[in-house]
Structures are given as structure tokens and as C-alpha cells.
Amino acid sequence: xxxxxNAVASRAxxxxxMKRTRGNFGARANVWTVAKNTFEKGQQYAYRDRKTKKxxxxxxxxxxxxxxxxxxxxxxxxxxxxxxxxxxxxxxxVLADLAMNHPKAFEAICKTVK
Length: 114
Fold this sequence. Notes:
Elements (H helix, E strand, L loop, with lengths): L6 H14 L6 H4 L1 H40 L4 H10 L6 H10 L1 H11 L1
Helix pairs in contact: 1-3, 3-5, 5-6
């Protein structure tokens, strides 16, 4: 009985991964074993950094809200505490956008919670 190797599927699988590693330097783009390791590590970084990205953005929003609140004589923690007491349901993303791009609207919110 002849040996069965499934070369077509194996070649397709390797080709698909090699396509994903194009643009890497040297062997990382064209040597199978190195490219495979590069690709797998890249996927790990991508997974990890999707989580990190959320943390970074929340941190940025807090800094922007803090800067906006201090213009109106409050600290960030004071501002958020008063927002919660006043039952104003705006998330940090929206508040940061208002503080940066619509200072009049942010000022109105500050006056509401004072």
C-alpha cells in the first residue's frame, strides 16, 4: 500500500501561516520553524494587548476628566463622587470626550453636581 502524506493540506496550512508572517525580518518571514514561533508569539501578544488596551484607555479617560474637573475647582475623585450622588449616569469615555471636545457641556455637568 502506498504511503499517504496529505501533502496538499500540509502545504496549504504552511502557506497560510507564511502569508501571515510576511513583512518580518529575515528568517522570521521565510523559515517555517522560525516563522511559526514568530506567528504564535505574535498571537499571544495580540491577545494580551487587547486586554491592556482597555486599561490604557480607561487611564487616559481618567486623566482627561481629572484635568477638566480641576479647571472647575474639583479633583477627579470629588467629581466622580458627586456625579454618583447626583445620579448622573455618564461613563468615563463620554465624560472624557466632553472634557476634551465640549468644555461648555462639561462645565454644565460640573455646575449640576456642585
